[in-house]
Amino acid sequence: MEKILLNIWYSNQFVYKLASYILIPISLLYLLFFYLISLFKTENKIAIPVICVGNINVGGTGKTSTLLKIINHFKINKKNICVLLKGYGGKKPIFKKVSPSDSAVLVGDEAIIYSNHVPTYISTNRRLAVKKILNDVSPDFILLDDGFQDRSIYKDKNILMVNGERGFGNRLCLPAGPLRELIKPALKRAQFLIIVGDDKTKIRNTYKNINIDTLTASIEPLYIDKNKKYLAFSGIGNNQSFFDTLMNNNCTVIKTIEFPDHHFFSENELSHLKRTATDNNLSLITTEKDFVRIPEDKRKGIECLKVEIKLPNMDEFMQKLVN
């Protein structure tokens, strides 16, 4: 089902375009519901700045890598920060401070990654969570992973992420397209738009009249052995972006296997992956998000590709972000 939706949202083939047009009436109902809810929500402003890294596309856009880059910059400058997210892929407790030793089944993969760097919290209710966080650590900044569409809490700065290859797809809202809300109103509410990869759908030119700082970023591996032949597998929001990162960095990828986003690998699936790799003299490699979802006793023989986002003029960007 996931692959069918991706084709409807991003493919130019006639049959998929037709399917998207058929779904437009449902999208109109979705939009009506979305904006009606927004009208009756009151944004709660708190005493410290809140910075949101979000998107309007469903699926992976590079939020985690960007947030980690911002975290690192804050830490270098001795700022007391924390991360708040919903814990997608986990059981979503009402409120919990995350430990690196927590299970991804409970808190989700992204929360574990963040918790290795800064105090990290997951909550189904951001307004409630912010009050608890202020009592717990009294940070200089709260960083939100996602939450751009959540009108219950005021964000001092909004960063929108978009994949340069996919762009905004067919530019329609759910379920006819990949968007959670309309593009132009969203861009007008944000202060920054980060395009990850080459701007192949000409986003910068299309929306040049909207007053928003637009940056182009790239994803680069921290380390990878280019002498190996790989079987790459992943279950993230944009699996192809992971495979592209490997191949764009001159890695030999012989076989790729895709799983749904936030997928928890069964023992049989992991055994099959290892057997397939062994039979074909390949090395297994996956993303950091997928790696933390694999039980520790099953990780042997699987490489984890850690990446970082490269932003031009990072110091200038951060200065604008905090002012």
Structure description:
The chain is an alpha/beta fold. It has helices spanning 2-10, 14-39, 63-76, 104-107, 109-115, 126-136, 183-189, 203-206, 239-248, 267-279, 288-293, 314-322, and strands at 50-55, 81-85, 95-98, 120-123, 141-145, 157-163, 192-196, 213-221, 229-234, 252-258, 283-287, 302-305, 307-310. The protein has a nine-stranded mixed β-sheet with strand order 3-4-2-5-1-6-7-8-13, sandwiched between helices. Strands 10-9-11-12 form a four-stranded parallel β-sheet, sandwiched between helices. α7 (183-189) links the parallel β6 (157-163) and β7. The chain is globular. The model has no long low-confidence stretch (mean pLDDT 95).
Secondary-structure map:
Layout: H1 2-10, H2 14-39, E1 50-55, H3 63-76, E2 81-85, E3 95-98, H4 104-107, H5 109-115, E4 120-123, H6 126-136, E5 141-145, E6 157-163, H7 183-189, E7 192-196, H8 203-206, E8 213-221, E9 229-234, H9 239-248, E10 252-258, H10 267-279, E11 283-287, H11 288-293, E12 302-305, E13 307-310, H12 314-322
Parallel strand pairs: 1-5, 1-6, 2-4, 2-5, 6-7, 7-8, 9-10, 9-11, 11-12
Antiparallel strand pairs: 3-4, 8-13
Helix pairs in contact: 1-2
